[in-house]
């Protein structure tokens, strides 16, 4: 009998890890459980994308509105409840969770408390902020670990995990990076996917991409606004066409979205274009062709290293993550950010670095998920 | 201004760790948040005990009835929600959670997701079962670690925790063990606290104490019943007066309670006495004076080692926990259990072993909680 | 295509209304959604009974432990959430809810908020306490009303419901009453179903049946205990063999169960036998053969009138319910209760009264549920 | 001792009923419990307005994101849970709920299940849709009824409520209507309150006001979009300056908001201005000065009748509500809507009608809440 695999997808980035895996799985062997932000994204969002690929989808509404620490925490609790009920309906043999966001832990708890085997993608990395706690806590629940590289494997094993359950597969998003079209499109058609409405403009080949998220552990949420404004000022002074991604729904996200609306309503020059989301292919293609990626998203460290795109990482959100040579770090200071970007613009493309994967993760993970002996108990080694 | 400390208490064992600490804290500096089993115990239960000591108590009803894996998981989700709301009302500076039960993780998540500092008692131990995952996951969230001994400290640090946040204090229940009355009471008065009803009998000085809980990760819940019956047969053959504790509310608990009722209704000899709970002092005194403690509770490994009481540990529930020389391990086989108990009865008392603490934990922990600089972010070391 | 009917069952009494209906429905046309008390009853409980009859069962764990007003209210909220998710999985055409307990309203809300047609059994009755509010609130949500008699129909219509949606079918439990075996068993074999353990004794033909539940709207929960003790004293003085049913899980139930345990442990005479539950057939047969039914359960007013069993109704719980000539009402006064019981013992059996149904409700309701045009909107008439 | 009154506020319209009441209450006698949409509105929203008036505010995050029937239902369940916990913290003597939205019932349940007295404003009205069921269900729970007029009182009493608990006070929003400034402002300054960003323009004295909400009981959510577009076409053809309010968060709200964004991005003429919200004074002043109010909001029937503003009510959402002579009803047909608006523009202002209140409701309700004897049980009369 086919093994039943459930992938738990809380946002667009999660699905970008899942899609390269399910490509190698028979359609009747898996189910996508969509929850949190992924369940409520606007039309044109990740849910539409998933529905195009498969009918094996369950949608759980677990996000409590408010975008603050309390609602983030309550949403996690509600997600545990809803996932538990869903797992009784689905009865998968193994649940796969991704990375380190607050809601991913809900899925890990639901699976393992109910004696279902758990696989984790992207364990052993380091970043900073609450994400570290979440990621390593999931590691302590997982029966199978699909990690990006040997450093991650080493860290997972050091935390007491059994070597035989740790697989260095690379990160599946690198699979997508590897398969991006070679020729750079001179005109980017930005369609409904982009959020508010259809919009088309010639991006040219000289643009920046910015992705800046709230830091949920900032003592003062206002700090996030201050930092957003510093970054905005810097980007304005650089003066290039810029694609700027909306923040995620974490605590503080609402207030940054407000800032964006304020800026948009007063913007005269119109060189900064804000977008809610792209599908993973378009997004990574936009990054690949950009002159520099700026912000505090993990994509500025992980995928950009494979793509060889110059990156300026600002603030503390990615503080612990191992960066390759394409990243310049920068505190939240306008002039420092400007200087760092200019330095990157002069430098141009870096050499491809396969630290986060070589493009074969999906196939490897699919094959292991199908065949490895599943355990429901864990033994740790010390 | 006084620092505000919130202790989260999910069961009687949790409060046995908390009581030796609050003894050293000013009454207006702490609050006890009671939830899960501790909130719903019968009158005479731990909640009554807590209410006698302090008025700073919040009671959260988070246990969803059913005593199965699904309700255990849903209860965890509901606990995250209720604790989050409670922490907004209380606004403590630091939250203290105990050990490794499923509900303790709910408290860790609620605290740290809301940027409140987290202290953890009993990190770094090893047992087996899902408890290991829960305990180490809490460690990954905790800012302060109060561990039982150097082995535990080493393990916590190996998992990436910063040495300066790990304190070898011993376990606070050992404080209670140290202060137990010296003279062995020949008659044990077992009152309302004992569960169903008032009962008084002369226990004498030749009795066993049994504590046997369901193993939630058993593939088949029936396995727990089978094991219960094996143990019961063994104890009947030993033929001594026996105090047998009811199981906890974990998945499988209901079915074991049913077994107890069945047995009670057919019991002719009446040497086995079942009890729902005692307060910690009475319980540890009963253990101290027993000839042997039998079962799969941690008390048969941890507190018994300090008390020098012979212990027979059955099955896998405590598989990884470091035991001192007073413990004989035993598979779930009737004859092996009988032989092990007989061996222990012949051996008699062991020497006190301070591996799990020397009786000064409460004072040490209280002092650190009051004075240590609290962090809200964590940095891990690798 | 077959219409899909979902019956929502929260306790044993609910299922006693549902069973006579599903008898007339094709097995693949309905589903039983079991929740609240019905989901967590001990083995031998109503869930076992349901599972014997059909596989179309969903079990939702919605009861939050504690048996107090807060947990009763929270359980209702959790039931709304779980039922909503379940209805998405099931997608029934019509949901059927029973009577007036707090959890029944949760089902009514879940169905109608999600635009599913709602049928209600036992609308238009009057009792007293919060039950009146719940029952009539459900009436305001229901699209179809299956009522016991013309008085109920009149009341439902007066509240603004459309005449064409109100069906006088009688109550389905009367169907069971009508079909009870004619010959009175002299020996009652009371088996595992009875709660704690197997028990067999000769009941004879001279016994009382007592059913006494907490009144959740008593200002002081202690009032319930006082009343319980008054009733117990009265029954002891009557001195007959007595079958006494445990109270339900409403707020206050725990404390009455405690009282029962206390009494049992001190009972010398042993004429009062406490039982957790019987299946509906056995229960109604026990009532039919009893000399008098005493307490504050609706069965002492509704089913007893059809069975012609003398009934003494105590306190306010059933204050508004229309009683037939077989009922003597009584305040919570020991001597008044004793006198009322004695009067009934002298009187003996009453004539059958078909006020609450004539035994054909199941067939009628099944037929309407299958064929009536379902509405999803409601128009009220004023 | 001062009686403690808790007002439960789920949206801006609720607070417009509460504000005229608390004006007459001592500040330490009441608390505003803010939940659902009111808790998550953007800055400048109703929560800011409330915080300016009093510090006695509790904010509960109970809205589950998604704006569909499932999330609406789940939000109701979560609201019951959160309100129950809040009422334990607050312990009010009486809870006041407003009107007929899905979340208001959650407050009614929480209060009465916990034996707290319940007052209801706006009972006995008729509209259509699920709102009727909700409103009358709340009536069945309420101990006190503050109704708009004698027709409402009659209906509430007919449903079995005791005459002595029904008070014809008028609706408190009419109090605000009565006190609006007399002189019509020629320039409307529309500030941050208006949603996205600050905006100022000369409205003049020749404009329409449109308020159109999704109908949650439409079989097909697409129906709501179709109707929105019909209305938009009609308004474009009328060609006047138009203030158009965003829809509420009910199921279907998201999709209408999307429509608005689509329209805004293609709008060349710019005569239609969309706004998220105004405070009640500004909103009612805008209505007062408008040439005609168009849509399916209750304000087009209730407040407009007192203000004498011509109103065109479209579709079924207000189907059962009693309208005064200022309202023309209209199906969702473009030409019919255009004709109805033109007819109203020609007619101009109507005479004030005090059917929904005379402007003294706040004072009357405050006085009754302070002095009336509170009941916790209900007796219904039939």
What does this structure look like?
Four copies of one chain form a homotetramer. The first copy, chain A, is α/β, with parallel strands linked by helices and 382 residues long. Chain A has two domains: 5-170 and 360-371, Rossmann fold (3-Layer(aba) Sandwich); 192-347, Rossmann fold. The first copy, chain A, contains 14 helices and 13 strands. In chain A, the strands form two sheets. In chain A, strands 3-2-1-4-5-6-7 form a seven-stranded parallel β-sheet, sandwiched between helices. In chain A, strands 10-9-8-11-12-13 form a six-stranded parallel β-sheet, with helices on both faces. In chain A, helix 1 (12-22) crosses helix 14 (361-371), helix 4 (69-90) runs parallel beside helix 5 (102-113) and helix 5 (102-113) packs parallel to helix 6. The model of chain A is unreliable at 191-198 (pLDDT under 50). At the A-B interface, helix 4, helix 5 and helix 6 of A face helix 4, helix 5 and helix 6 of B.
């Amino acid at each position: 009998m086919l093994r039943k695999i459930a992938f738990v997808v809380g946002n667009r980035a999660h699905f970008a890890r899942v899609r390269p895996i399910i490509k190698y799985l028979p359609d009747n062997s898996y189910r996508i459980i969509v929850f949190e932000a992924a369940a409520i994204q606007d039309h044109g969002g990740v849910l539409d994308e998933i529905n195009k690929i498969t009918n094996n989808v369950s949608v759980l509404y677990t996000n409590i509105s408010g975008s603050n620490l309390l609602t983030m925490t309550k949403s996690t609790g509600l997600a545990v409840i809803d996932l538990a009920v869903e797992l009784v309906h689905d009865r998968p043999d193994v649940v796969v969770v991704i990375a380190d966001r607050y809601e991913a832990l809900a899925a890990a708890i639901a699976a393992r408390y109910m004696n279902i085997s758990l696989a984790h993608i992207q364990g052993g990395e380091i970043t900073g902020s609450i994400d570290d706690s979440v990621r390593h806590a999931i590691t302590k629940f997982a029966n199978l670990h699909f990690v990006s590289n040997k450093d991650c494997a080493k860290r997972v094993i050091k935390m007491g995990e059994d070597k035989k359950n740790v697989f260095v597969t690379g990160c599946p998003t690198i699979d997508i990076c590897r398969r991006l079209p070679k020729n750079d499109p001179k005109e980017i058609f930005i369609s409904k996917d982009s959020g508010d409405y259809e919009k088309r403009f010639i991006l040219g080949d000289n643009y920046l991409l910015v992705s800046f998220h709230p830091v949920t552990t900032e003592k003062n949420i206002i700090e996030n606004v201050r930092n957003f404004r510093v970054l905005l000022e810097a980007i304005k002074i650089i003066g290039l066409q810029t694609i700027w991604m909306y923040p995620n729904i974490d605590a503080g996200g609402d207030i940054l979205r407000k800032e964006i609306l304020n800026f948009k309503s007063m913007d005269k020059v119109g060189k900064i274009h804000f977008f809610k989301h792209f599908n993973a292919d378009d997004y990574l293609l936009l990054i690949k062709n950009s002159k520099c990626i700026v912000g505090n998203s993990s994509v500025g460290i992980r995928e950009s290293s494979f793509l060889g795109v110059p990156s300026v990482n600002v603030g503390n959100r990615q503080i612990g993550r191992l960066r390759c040579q394409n990243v310049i770090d920068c505190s939240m200071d306008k002039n420092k950010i400007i200087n760092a970007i200019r330095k990157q613009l002069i430098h141009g493309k870096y050499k491809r670095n396969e630290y986060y994967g070589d493009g074969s993760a999906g196939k490897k993970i699919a094959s292991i998920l199908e065949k490895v002996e599943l355990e429901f108990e864990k033994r740790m080694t010390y």
